[in-house]
């Protein structure tokens, strides 16, 4: 009779561990989803800002059509991207195209002095900072989630419950550009 109670107690403890592990993994998974949604909100704001920026530049640098077309193409690609990996790659393309667009202002002093352009460039800079903060939060949430599914006792149940590893929001090919220090020449 006492052996039966011991076995029952062990089973109850295992079930409680499974419930606790499942609930923790659900919470971590939800945090990752919420963090990606935060990035998505910031990216949508950037996508809405891009056409205004392009139109402003078009008035001053209309013959720079290739750069303007690249920005619009990159924006459309970013809007249609799905999932962290595709969104990350598309947004990296858009960031590069926007960088080339902003660089045009150096060649056109009238554009650089335009109040509308300055406001849009300032908004873009602010959005880029918010996007970077959102990416850091997302990557932190992914790190906690991935760690959570690999730690005991959750590791024993994660696969059974369908929890799989999530991908980070990576800078990809543009990592080298981000890590190099810009040179300043006077």
Automatic annotation (TrEMBL):
Q: Which Pfam families match?
A: LemA
Subcellular location, in the record's words? Membrane
Q: What is its main location?
A: membrane
A single Gene Ontology CC term? membrane
Is the keyword Transmembrane in the record?
yes
Q: Which residues form a coiled coil?
A: none
Q: How does it sit in the membrane?
A: Single-pass membrane protein
State the family named in the UniProt similarity comment for this chain. Belongs to the LemA family.
PANTHER family tied to this protein: PROTEIN LEMA
Q: What is this protein called?
A: LemA family protein
């Amino acid at each position: 009779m006492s052996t039966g109670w011991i076995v029952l107690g062990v089973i109850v403890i295992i079930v409680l561990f499974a419930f606790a592990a499942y609930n923790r993994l659900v919470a971590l998974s939800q945090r990752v989803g919420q963090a990606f949604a935060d990035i998505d909100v910031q990216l949508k704001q950037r996508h809405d800002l891009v056409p205004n920026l392009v139109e402003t530049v078009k008035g001053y640098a209309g013959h720079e059509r290739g750069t303007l077309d690249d920005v619009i193409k990159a924006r459309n690609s970013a809007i249609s991207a799905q999932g962290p990996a595709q969104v990350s790659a598309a947004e990296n393309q858009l960031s590069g195209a926007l960088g080339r667009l902003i660089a045009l202002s150096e060649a056109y002093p009238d554009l650089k002095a335009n109040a509308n352009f300055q406001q849009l460039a300032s908004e873009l800079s602010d959005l880029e900072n918010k996007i970077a903060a959102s990416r850091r939060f997302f990557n932190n949430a992914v790190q906690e989630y991935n760690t959570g599914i690999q730690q005991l006792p959750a590791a024993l149940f994660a696969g059974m419950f369908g929890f799989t590893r999530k991908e980070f929001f990576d800078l990809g090919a543009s990592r080298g550009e981000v890590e190099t220090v810009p040179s300043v020449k006077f």
